[in-house]
Amino acid sequence: MSLELRTYRTARTPKCCDMHLCHTRIQPGDRYLRTSLPPQVEPNYSDHWWSMNVCTACMADDAEQGEHRTTADEFNARHPVGTRVVAYPGARPEDDATATRIDTTTRNQATVLGGHTDVVWVHGHSACIALTHIDVIDGGAA
Predict the structure, then answer these.
(1) Whole-angstrom Cα distance, residue 15 to residue 7?
(2) What are the DSSP E strand ranges found in 61-121?
(3) Which secondary-structure segment (H or E) carries 72?
(4) Which residues pair with residue 15 across a beta bridge?
(5) Residues of the chain scoring pLDDT < 50
(6) What is residue 60's predicted lDDT score, i.e. its pLDDT?
């Protein structure tokens, strides 16, 4: 059961897309997704609701690009919580030579954020990281 709230809206005022590394301005008249996750529900362990505005480009299904991506369910089936990983919170090193690299472990099961992005939370970083920016270290669980 998911307690996440999702509503598709038409913008009345300009907004910024809140997806990581997206700098798109949502303009009046544009369709966008407003998604919220209540407090104290995994992965939101804070005392406040998490809310995001997501532009239509970020809502697009990654499958349209013809690449297979690991889904949260596939990741969870292969890798338990505590699995050793290398996480790239911003960009992958093949896209940015100065990309941040974190050698860490997963702190929860992977999940789908906003109905479209498979993510996992890791120790040492406060935000979720897309599974496309996670490399599992051979040897698995820590």
Answers:
(1) 15
(2) 83-87, 102-105, 111-113, 117-120
(3) helix 72-78
(4) 26
(5) 1-2, 61-68
(6) 67
Q: How many residues does the chain have?
A: 142
CB 19 within 8 A of CB 54: yes
Residue 97: the pLDDT is 86
Could you tell me which residues are beta bridge partners of residue 8?
Answer: 33
Quick one: pLDDT at residue 85? 95
Question: What φ, ψ does residue 17 adopt, rounded to 5°?
Answer: -70, 135
Burial string for 114-134 (b: 16+ CB within 10 Å, else e) reads bebbbbbbbeeeeebbbbebb
Q: What is the pLDDT of residues 93-114, one digit of tens each?
A: 888 888 899 999 999 999 888 7
The residue among 74, 77, 86 whose CA lies nearest residue 125 is 86
Identify which of 119, 49, 48 has the alpha carbon closest to the alpha carbon of residue 89: 119
